[in-house]
Amino acid sequence: MPSYLPTLLPSCPNSLLSPHGRLLSLHQPQVMGILNLTPDSFFAGSRVASEQDLLARAAAMLAAGAAVLDLGAYSTRPGAADISEAEETQRLLPAVQALRREFPQAFLSVDTFRARVAHAAVLAGADMVNDVGGGTLDAAMFATVGRLRAPYVLMHLRGTPQNMAQLTHYDEDLVLTLLRHFRDGLVALRRAGVVDVLLDPGFGFAKTAAQSHELLRRLPELQALGRPVLVGLSRKKMVYGPLGLSPEAALNGTTALHMVALQGGARLLRAHDVAEAHQTIQLFANTFSMAE
């Protein structure tokens, strides 16, 4: 292990425990289904139009093999408009409550960088906080998650969703930058009492398509931190850009890169297309179990 990395855990944890008592097993890779409560998410096919639509999509994702449902009420696509905390909360909480009512055993994640939104969502029944800011956009986030005893996704981001596209220059090795970011974040989270942490490299967040491909190729290097890795590359520019396509035409490319991510050690695939991601995991497991 590199000298600048602390000893955080002897091995990658195999499960995450919700403050509500629900358990997410990561003994095998799993799928996190994306449910966007925003009107301007980059992939139009992911936008939820109503509560009825939300429940139907959630039911289909769970039936297709989703182990986690991830709800986002603030668009983080490059250049997306900022919205108030109140608006984000008004979008998010009714969705959490509806899903908890209809699917009491489902493991629910909330995609927010605001501590007060995360707090309200977990009290409403959410199980995990998925923070694209990695604690950099709200100084109260780590302490809040620690008090909640909720699993937490620590992502790498520079700047904000509004200006991150202009912050893609790195003075040092990109993976080294991420390792240091995660090292410092894990130390701070441990001090705040957060036990269960996943790492997300932040594909496309203050990273060009070429940089995102480098991160994917070097994904195994993140294993030094002893934490499970979440990969969120579904239908992103790193997929459709090199192919000259649109997000709507990027399912096949997403599947191809999901297999690369699994080979690099990813434990959770955040995906718009749950059935296809789940099938990729099944084929990955079948191929490598037969090779042993």
From TrEMBL:
Cofactor(s) listed: Mg(2+)
Listed pathway(s): Cofactor biosynthesis; tetrahydrofolate biosynthesis; 7,8-dihydrofolate from 2-amino-4-hydroxy-6-hydroxymethyl-7,8-dihydropteridine diphosphate and 4-aminobenzoate: step 1/2
The reaction(s) this protein catalyses: (7,8-dihydropterin-6-yl)methyl diphosphate + 4-aminobenzoate = 7,8-dihydropteroate + diphosphate
InterPro entries for this protein: DHP_synth-like, DHP_synth_dom, Dihydropteroate_synth-like_sf, Pterin-binding_dom
A Pfam family hit: Pterin_bind
Any single biological process term in GO: tetrahydrofolate biosynthetic process
Keywords: Folate biosynthesis, Magnesium, Metal-binding, Transferase
Pterin-binding domain sequence ranges: 29-282
Annotated GO CC locations: cytosol
Listed GO MF terms: dihydropteroate synthase activity; metal ion binding
Enzyme nomenclature, EC number: 2.5.1.15
Cross-referenced PANTHER family: FOLATE SYNTHESIS PROTEINS, FOLIC ACID SYNTHESIS PROTEIN FOL1
Protein name, per record: dihydropteroate synthase
Species this protein is from: Hymenobacter glacialis
Upper lineage: Bacteria, Pseudomonadati, Bacteroidota, Cytophagia, Cytophagales
